[in-house]
Amino acid sequence: MREDSLDAASHVPLDVSPNARDRNIAGDQGLDTLIHMQFPSSTSSSTAVRVPAAWEIAVPTGDYNVTVSVGDAAANFDSTHRINVEGQVAVNNFVPTSAERFRSATTTVRVSDGRLTIDARGGTNTKIDYVDANTADTTPPAAPTNVTATRGSRWDGTRTPRRTSPATTSTAGLHCPSAPVAPRSTEPPR
Fold this sequence. Notes:
five-stranded antiparallel sheet; globular; Jelly Rolls; mainly beta; 12 strands; disordered C terminus
């Protein structure tokens, strides 16, 4: 497995380790550390890499669930964070505040060139905290068996189909702690 930081424009390997920070503020090391993907020209630094960076890792062709986090544990609110995963916007122009310093997002992408690519094009001083990528099972789940619905006089949004035996589903080890919970439908089951 090969992992590289790249020049976002040319995709030539680029060492952006001088742009890494460990704030020693947050209890979660994933949020306490960051790398400037676009080091601001207004900040004085003799060692900073000012070429906009991307991040890439070699993976087999397939679908991936990718969670990314941006932000800064320190009180630095000088960013408009944008993260693109395989060309799809995952974090769109997040501007941190003292009340919300971090933003994470999960997206499912298809990798067809053998490289999962993450860049910050469209952002300003984007600081990436962590990336979590897992293969995605895009096979639709099988329809539940042994399920019957009880007819009621009127749908009130609270009745659910009765199961005569438990249906089984597999999550195949998928763990997305930051994935949002889908809202409950108020429509009757079909």
